[in-house]
Amino acid sequence: MRNRAATGLDTAIVDVWKREVGQLSPRNFALRLAAPEDLVKRFEIFRKLEKHRGCVNTISFNHDGNVLVSGSDDTRIILWDWQTGNVKLSFQSGHHNNVFQAKFMPYTDDQCIVTSAADGRIRCAHILPHGKVETKLLARHSGPTHMLAIEPGSPHIFYSCGGDGLVQRIDLRTGAAVVLFTCEALNYRSFSSVVYLNAIAIDPRNSNLFAVAGSDEYARLFDLRNFKFGSSDIYGQPVDFFCPSHLVGDHGVSITGLAFSDQSELLVSYVDECIYLFSKSMGLGPDLPFISTPSNQSDASVEDEPQAYKGHQNSKTVKGVGFFGPKCEYVVSGSDCGRIFIWKKKGGKLVNVMEGDRRVVNCIESHPHTAVLASSGIESDIKLWTPTATEKRELPINIHKFYGSGSSDDNDESDDEYFYDDESGDGSEDGYEMVERFIADQMDEDDSISVEEDSNDDDMASDEMDGGEEEDEEEDFFDDTADDSNNDDIGVSEDDDEVEEGSDEDYSVSVAEDQKDDDGRGGMASDEVVGTVDKEEHH
Asked: Is 0.90 surpassed by the pTM of this model?
């Protein structure tokens, strides 16, 4: 009898036995079980978290992984016990517009959350005893602020980047925001003097190194040790640039997402292009001696080229990108087609595609310790994914015929297909239908993505959102001009904090305004909001 090749599931079963008899420690068992390909192919919806009343733009786990924080177009921050689906805490962020980022500060017992938003403000929320939350304005940008980056292991230091090209370093101990630099555009980009920044990430192995990216083709790496505070002669000078050779000099590309792996590799997500993984050795250096065009890059060595991850579509919104697995074995991203894509980091093989939103998936967050994913997008819910499906989700053998890289160097138009409904009719109808059948066959009826209309639509229509009028979901996110309303007072107006009539909320607010920072470039801004949490939501 011929022996059957061992599978990942077979190995996992053996590991269970080894753990039970003491041959494998619980920690090593958890690490081994976290990311076998068998498990990655068994993801299904575990739970939907439904409380927000707008697009959910940010999700993040705390250090222990038992609490998830989310922020939305409704300007609320919600803390979830994701395993039970209960809301632990819900409060108004104090922002005037869509919340784009919310993160726990480490080593604060989950009592400190920093946020950023479309209004350009950077705020900090302190959870106080007796069910109260104090939010304070720390800094501001003159354009939307999509991303924050927390210094690894620090309960005090984090960074912000914004549409004004500014990068700021904020210290919660002093409440001061220091402008590090303005990210200047290269000379050949004459339409703007600064780079509209969408993303910032810090190297987890060296917190002195951080990368920023936005409205041009380069991810720029900076070293904090080069910054001599009080001297501006070297501000804004990167120590390295990263860009695929065929995109150097391409005026039509830009970047929405960055992430560092535990091995200090840099993951970069391009608009209308691929996701690329760079090692440190692939940098172009601190000086770009000339701006070459894509056609001049055809002689680049294959060894020098970054790994590409293909198939998703990224053009409508600012999407993040990230890693999954205890050793960052997988790359994960959302897509304009409403699906979640998972690739093997090594080799770029697409291993799973899951339907996560009726329109667009913007956020994918990996649990810090186990095989759990959280996703969110244009819909108002959050989906938790666990590898509990009894059947593996196998991609069709010829799946590569039905997705393309979106790369400018792909000459065969027939390969330039995506997993999305191309309203222009350019896509392959047969390929799209095949993928739709694949998704439909694999989805359990109980986990159907079709979402019924919210029964509270009437209530929602009468509720006034603190963030004001909701932004167009497909707004050009490289518009350097901020809404005039975002550049008014730093303080929160009393009108924004009125209790909503007809709601179940008891939300009392006091506002204290001190002297405002007139230069609009950061610094301490002492606007405070103190309020009680929602009664029915606090557990």
From this structure: no
